[in-house]
Amino acid sequence: MSLDMFLQHCFNALTLGSLYALIAIGYTMVYGILRLINFAHGDILMVGAYFVFFGTFAFGWPWGIAAIMAIAGASLLGVVMERVAYRPLRDAPRISALISAIAVSFFIESLAVVVFTGQPRPVLQPEWLVSEWQVWGGVRILRLTAFVPAMTAVLVGILLYIVYRTKPGLAMRAISKDIETTRLLGVRVDNIIAFTFCIGSALAAASGIMWALRYPQVHPYMGIMPGLKAFIAAVFGGIGSIQGAVIGGVALGFVEIMTVAFMPELSGYRDAFAFVLLVLVLLFKPTGLLGERMEEKI
Asked: What is the pTM of this model?
């Protein structure tokens, strides 16, 4: 493999890994606070992509306006989902909340099929994102390939500022340690948890928008596989850790792209690599790279 081709694969891997990282952050934030795997998170990705599709094609909005409205709509959906499906089960056994998460996922997917139909639809790609850059030598990439990691870095930076430099972020970290004590200290726990779902859903919508730009079509089940892989990335990096989710997402992107690049005969097994990685992590380091061992109460 030539150096130019290797660099091309590195850019592609970084782009894919950045998308996984954004989705994985939503999983890890909710788990860090509620010890809940929100399996409907990947479907928020799909909803965000559909909102942009209808914003640009049905309403004729500029792409940027449609993207902002899609993120706002997905954030609202995340808050509603927490209020309706998860908050009433806050004191129920963990298995009840897990079943509710799976039910919400199936409900959103089925509703999307009814409302949007199951037919894949094309996505508008802004011209400034699909023009090419010559990076070095024979390496040429789309502006989108650079836009995705850059936007991911900006969003992760904003998130880290919120978590570590603001009062809601302080409350989120306190809840992740001891929710009952935090409530006794006067923190409005329900509001902070809803805020967490709002942020996680916004990041999922942003990743869904960029995913639809990279793979330019939307359909009701587009969030299933990215959601599962992002969950694997979160486990690999250490679920509950934002930095771990980013590391896990980027690492998974490189594993997928580089394995196929060096062993193209295994390209049909590309999705299987992620699940093999999950098995290995659970066998040898169940807490992930940056995760901490936590006591579970069933």
From this structure: 0.94
Element (H, E) at 100: helix 94-116
SS3 179: helix
Summarised one tens digit per residue, pLDDT across range 120-150 is 999 988 888 888 887 777 788 889 999 999 9
CB 22 within 8 A of CB 189: no
* Contact of 123 with 213, CB cutoff 8 Å: yes
Confidence of residue 91 (pLDDT cuts 50, 70, 90): confident
DSSP 36: -
What dotted CATH number matches 3-284?
Answer: 1.10.3470
Residues 6+ apart with CB under 8 A from 51: 66, 69, 70, 73, 74, 205
Spatial distance between the Cα atoms of 274 and 253, rounded to a whole number of angstroms = 9
- Angle at which helices 41-57 and 224-237 pack, to 10 degrees? 130
| Positions of E strands within 185-249 | 217-218
Name which of 130, 279, 282 is nearest 215 in CA terms.
130
Dihedral sign computed on CA atoms, order 138, 255, 211, 270:
positive
Rounded distance, CA 161 to CA 155, Å? 10
Distances (CA, A) of 138 to 5, 20, 21, 59: 8, 27, 28, 40
Reduced DSSP (H G I as helix, E B as strand, rest coil) percent helix, strand, coil of the chain, to 5: 75, 5, 20
Nearest by Cα to 255 from 10, 3, 4: 10
- The amino acid at residue 237 is G
CA distance 191 to 120: 37
